[in-house]
Design goal:
Number of strands of chain B: 7
Distance between the termini of chain A: 6 Å
Number of helices of chain A: 14
Strand content of chain A: 15-25%
Shape of chain B: globular
Radius of gyration of chain B: 15 Å
Radius of gyration of chain A: 21 Å
Number of helices of chain B: 4
Order of helices and strands of chain A: EEHHHHHHEEHHEEEHEEHHHEEEHHE
Largest interface: A-B, 48 and 37 residues
Structural class of chain B: alpha/beta
Largest sheet of chain B: 7 strands, mixed
Strand order of the largest sheet of chain A: 2-1-13
Structural class of chain A: alpha+beta
Shape of chain A: globular
Helix content of chain B: 25-40%
Strand order of the largest sheet of chain B: 2-3-4-1-5-7-6
Distance between the termini of chain B: 5 Å
Oligomer: heterodimer
Number of strands of chain A: 13
Chain lengths: 431, 176
């Protein structure tokens, strides 16, 4: 029996890599296996023996696009150990910098990575030649997000101002005010972006996901920086119950761990899940834009995640402006604490989904163990299930076209390998 | 030589062995140029100026992670730019490649898979599409060998980074 094998070779930079193997017999898809490189495992080992204060800055290095998410989950977990409750001013400042991350991450993905898939371009820069104004709008949004992170965090990539208990320095109100005009302009443009994404053509795919995300305990607040973990099938637990609710398992074809709900199976985290379970908590303009875009009471087509991301960008600008209006400089930039041993849990909503941290701290304030569950490993099983359906529906396509369709499907999740135009090493075994 | 601003950008990842090559080039350039000029000038964006103060022939030096929007913003208003980066293994670790940007795209081997981010090749082509390239752009790429998580740069890459720093400063101060 002959085997067709098509490979997209690895190129230079080494931050991420993906490989996918599809086994087809006749018109039947027998298996779809996706391998995703997963850096957090290395960081868990690196963290052991380090001072608890180092965790936010070390884990921020896991990802250049969502360092604030890693810092936030790490800080929360340490504060859980130390018994720190952040004053509201510090908590909202953390939420403000997180808005910057949602904006810059979503804008990059939406305009430069995902939109080209829908419009038939090889890349964002190829698209820029024909859709200059759209791409310029995306760059302005991303720049505004970067500037927000820079103003609060001291640096746009890997912020240096975030610490356990708060910040090293809380900005003056006037320092934040310089951003107001830019945020207002970009918020207006974000509405245009929702309309732009709503007008794209979406491949047919309806899935019955168990959606999992946070729900803020603050009434009416869309989940970003903290909350309880909830699901569409009845999960409603505190972060400390993550391990009792979800499990990770090794699968033979991948070094990455696959997560699932204990006793059930795959689940979906990220923008679709947040929208599914929290849409009534969006700001009125974002909710209205979502309705106008046809998102209605929910969205089970993963290809429409680009619309939800656009809605979340609009929301993040709205929320940043609301937080700016309400900003009162904290009396002290961080809550003082005394080291004590214990186990702590932290969870927040990275742009691409739930990010859970758990640390065990010894009596001298050193990290005895670390456990980090990133969004991509939580979504990996759902990605494979999406791919199985997409491949089955497109089995007659030539391998190259099939690879494009698979990449598009994976990019719906904005996972840690989605950036390159041709990131996927695809092997199609048609027997 | 034109009086426009000149900028050396080192890009890379310190936690991935030879992927730090571009950062090593930037630091070596600062070391070379700061010796006779002790003050190390930081601009609000964290830039350092090597070889004197602004307006006196200084070359600005900055380290970035290679994220396109940051790159394009960094070279806005700059006349001449050298970007130092790491190149994919191609059989000769430590070899220094030099590309002066013309009408053709940079070699694809300078790009490739990354996490969520786009890289230098994509930044250049995006800037080209949007008419935001500097007048002159040179890429110095040090061929890497090892990229383990948490690994140190190899000796041969360190050595090349030092000579690449000299080449970068020559490019930025010699002929432009």
């Amino acid at each position: 029996m002959s085997e067709r094998r098509i490979e997209t070779p690895y190129l230079a930079r080494v931050e991420g890599e993906g490989a996918m193997h599809v086994r087809i017999r006749g018109e039947q898809v027998e298996s779809v296996e996706l391998r995703i490189f997963e850096p957090p495992r290395f960081f868990e080992a690196l963290l052991r023996g380090r001072a608890l204060e180092e965790a936010p800055d070390i884990t921020a290095r896991i990802c250049g696009i969502c360092p604030v998410a890693y810092q936030t989950s790490a800080c929360q977990a340490m504060e859980d150990v130390l018994g720190i409750e952040l004053p509201v001013e510090l908590r909202l400042l953390r939420r403000l910098i997180y808005c910057g991350e949602w904006i810059e991450s979503h804008a990059l993905h939406l305009y430069l990575l995902h939109a080209p898939d829908f419009l038939g371009y090889e890349s964002g820069f190829a698209m820029a030649a024909d859709h200059r104004e759209v791409v310029e709008r995306g760059l302005r949004a991303k720049k505004a997000g970067n500037r927000l992170i820079e103003l609060v965090g001291g640096r746009a990539v890997h912020p240096v101002n975030v610490r356990v208990g708060g910040f090293y320095r809380a900005p003056e109100r006037r320092e934040l005010e310089v951003l107001r005009g830019e945020l207002e302009r970009c918020r207006d443009e974000a509405l245009e972006t929702v309309r732009f994404t709503a007008g794209l053509d979406f491949p047919e795919l309806e899935r019955d996901y168990e959606t999992v995300c946070l729900r803020s305990e603050v009434e009416g607040e869309y989940p970003i920086d903290r909350g309880r973990i909830v699901s569409s099938k009845g999960v409603d637990v505190a972060p400390a119950e993550f391990d009792a609710t979800f499990e990770e398992e090794h699968v033979p074809h991948s070094t990455a761990l696959h997560a699932r709900v204990r006793g059930r199976g795959a689940y979906l985290t990220g923008p679709l899940a947040r929208f599914d379970l929290n849409r009534e908590r969006l700001s009125p303009p974002a909710l209205e834009a979502a309705r106008e875009a046809g998102l209605g009471e929910g969205c089970a087509n993963p290809f429409r995640s680009i619309v939800v991301r656009a809605v979340e960008v609009l929301y993040a600008f709205d929320e940043a402006l609301r937080l700016l209006d309400a900003y009162r400089r904290p009396e002290q930039p961080a809550v003082p604490y005394e080291v004590r041993p214990g186990v702590g849990h932290g969870v927040s909503e990275a742009p691409r989904g739930l990010l859970y941290h758990r640390y065990e701290i010894d009596s001298e304030g050193r990290i005895a163990s670390a456990w980090i569950v990133p969004p991509t490993s939580q979504n990996q099983r759902s990605i494979e299930e999406d791919l199985a359906e997409v491949v089955a529906a497109n089995v007659s396509l030539p391998d190259e076209a099939l690879r494009h369709r698979c990449e598009h499907t994976i990019r719906n999740y904005d996972p840690c390998i989605s950036c390159s135009t041709h990131f996927l090493r695809l092997e199609v075994d048609r027997g | 030589m034109s009086g426009g601003r000149r900028l050396l950008i080192g890009i890379g990842n310190e936690l991935r062995g030879d992927d730090a090559a571009g950062l090593l080039v930037a630091r070596a350039a600062l070391d070379r140029e700061l010796e006779p000029e002790p003050p190390c000038l930081f601009s609000p964006k964290g830039r350092k100026k090597a070889g004197g103060s602004a307006g006196s022939g200084a070359v600005e030096v900055i380290e970035l992670e290679g994220e396109p929007v940051e790159l394009i913003a960094a070279w806005e208003g700059v006349e001449a730019v050298v970007v130092a980066d790491c190149a994919a293994p191609a059989g000769q670790p430590g070899r220094l490649h030099r590309f002066e940007l013309g009408d053709e795209p940079l070699p694809a081997a300078l790009g490739g898979p990354s996490t969520h981010a786009l890289g230098l090749v994509e930044a250049v082509e995006l800037a080209r599409s949007l008419d935001r390239l500097p007048k002159r752009l040179v890429v110095l790429a040090v061929e890497g060998e090892r990229f383990e998580l948490g690994g140190e740069p190899t000796e041969v890459v360190r050595e090349t980074a030092a000579s690449a720093a000299a080449a970068a400063l020559e490019d930025l101060t010699g002929g432009w």
